[in-house]
Amino acid sequence: PNHYCTILHCSSTHRGQYNSIQVKLGDIFPHHMTLEVWVEAHNKLGKIESEHLKEDSGWFVKTDPPSDVKVFSERSFPTSLLINWTHRIIKERVKLTYQIRYRQNGTQNWTYVPLGDTASDIKSFRLQDLQPYQVYETQVSCKNAKEGHGYWSNWSNIVTKKTPEDRPTSKPDLWRIIAEGDGIQQVQFICKDPVLANGRIIRFNIKIQDPKDKVKNGSLEWKNITRSSQGKITDLKQIDLADQKYVGVYVTATNSVGNSPVASLFITAKAHEHAPVEELKVLPHRGQLWLEWKPPNSSKLVSEYVVEWVGSAQTDWQKEMRNTTRTAIKGHLEKFVCYNVSVYPIYHGCIGKPASKKAYLEQGAPALAPVVNLNDKPGRNQATLVWTEIPQGRRRGFITNYTIFYTSGSEVHNLTVPANTNSYTLKSLSGNTKYDTWIKASTIGGSISSFNHSFTTLKYAPGEMEFIVVGVSLGFLFIMVMTMLLCVYKKDVIKENFWPQIPDPGESTIGNWLPDYPLKAETQESGLSGISVLDVDVCDGKCVFEEDKASLPLKKDKYLSEEHSSGIGGSSCMSSPRQSVSDSDEGGDMADTTASTVQYSSVVPASSGYKGQTPNSQPQQALFSRSESTQPLLDSEENPDMLLQEASRQSPPRRPRFTDGGDPAGIAEQQELLEPLDFCPLGEDSEQDTPVDGQAADWLPAAVPPLSSYMPQLGGYRPQ
């Protein structure tokens, strides 16, 4: 009675739940008898009964679980465990059947032993086809063996046991890490324990050889490498290998029982690498990284695939069967760590080209903000910003973009640049303005902003001042050049304005001005006794003819020279009267005459008018008016004989004309002073003898006809 009980099932209609109760019947159980069972529900208003059950007493029985369950391992049977237990009820009263389940330690799935194997009345059972050197958990339950009677008991307590060691039945997991160099590859061979190690791996055995060198390969010996105790990966050996070298690596694993099968790996030349997988995709899903790819074109030659992932300080891999195209990484992955995931097809030990992708198990905001600075000095309207790249280990995700913020006041400007950019030039800035700028780096998991950086734009753009100075200088130089060119091409006009032309007596035409009637050459020396030389100052209008008549008698030959000398028509306003001829016989009155002053005379009619005036009918006598100049004499003035010969050929006679551009008013005043004067006789001290009356009458004309007009001026003065 202490080993079984009757279970009554009842239903609570107001709760909708099933309840159970265990009824202990004491020392005597009604074996092989019919029992009637029902349930009553009571409250203040009354009671109600359930349906009455009438069954054999064994129909209601739920036994207790088996007790004293034990598990044994046997060294000679590394793949089995023996389970023993004891009966709780004698079989004469209740015949029991048993149920057994087991699982490897750390797993959640149970493996059940088929009920047909445990239907008989047994007290032990041997679990078979287990993995050597693995810990298993075992439980047992029982119930009434009669069909349709009783309920399964609860499971017994879990009993754990490790299976014995056995020789490794799978190959070591061999792989390599290659560091590229200048024509040399540094190959590091690494290895993990076999999947079916069947015990504790003590060491690895490695052999590296050239598959083409068959003679040498037979003599190579295995080298033992003790397994690493720091982790599951053991570094076997590192070699330097040329790019074109071809080697094979062979490795076995050893435990306390024996050696594993040989794992081989061949490093081929780069030129002979096989094709990679196609369309590789790596996506995070439910806390795992899932990979999907398409087999290469030569998929029939692929024996397996190697999935490799490399993190910040972790390198791991796993192998997949040849027909696998989708799998999840089974190793431990960390959040916010970037992994470089690669898939290598293995062509019977030869490694093909990899297909790689970068992936995060989970992304977040970057742990470090970029540092923004200026690239060189800012300009007037632009500034180039540069910022540091966030280290790979601090990004915590893929950088999607950078956002640049800059402000010079209350208004904030922003712009977005791609993730592969680490510099940008801000344009259309204001000159001589202070700006604050910062950078925001973003991932799909968040963003982080940098510290502010301030700068001030220039007041003038680089080269602008130089341009202004050069422009002004060039403009000034252009003006100077144009001025010089103008002076060169307009020198005559400038000369006229700044240095007006002074009449040149050397070019005067006074030598051609003759009296109205030509004189005979043979009578000229004796026919001028009635002519005197006058010195007139045009500026002050004073005439000194009367003084000259008394004190300055002229010689006949000098008179002829003065008669035919050219005049300017008047002297300058600052000049004073000079005497016509400087002679040693004239005494101290001529001492004032300088050697540089040359006197000129002009023929003036006694009563003359200007051009266009009607001459008087009475005969007029010619007078000489003197002017002064520092210019040398004309040829005609130095040679009076030539002048007289030329004058004899002039017809009709003309009145003399002033050629120095004198003032007409001054000329008129001079003529008025000369009108009442008569020709004076030559002085007594003249070198020429005074002609007799008869000779004078023969030489001089009876009357001098008046001059009709001035001689026309042909060309004006010539330049000096």
UniProtKB/TrEMBL annotation:
A GO molecular function term, named singly, is: cytokine receptor activity
Lipid bilayer topology? Single-pass type I membrane protein
Pfam hit, one: fn3
Which terms in the GO cellular component ontology are assigned?
Answer: plasma membrane
Q: Where is the Fibronectin type-III domain?
A: 65-166, 367-463
Segments of this protein annotated with the region Disordered: 563-592, 606-666
Subcellular location, record wording: Membrane
Mind listing the UniProt keywords for this protein, alphabetically?
Answer: Disulfide bond, Glycoprotein, Membrane, Receptor, Repeat, Signal, Transmembrane, Transmembrane helix
PANTHER family with a match to the protein in the record:
INTERLEUKIN-27 RECEPTOR SUBUNIT ALPHA (PTHR48423:SF1)
Question: What name goes with this protein?
Answer: Fibronectin type-III domain-containing protein
Q: What is the lineage of its organism?
A: Eukaryota, Metazoa, Chordata, Craniata, Vertebrata
Q: Which gene encodes it?
A: il6st
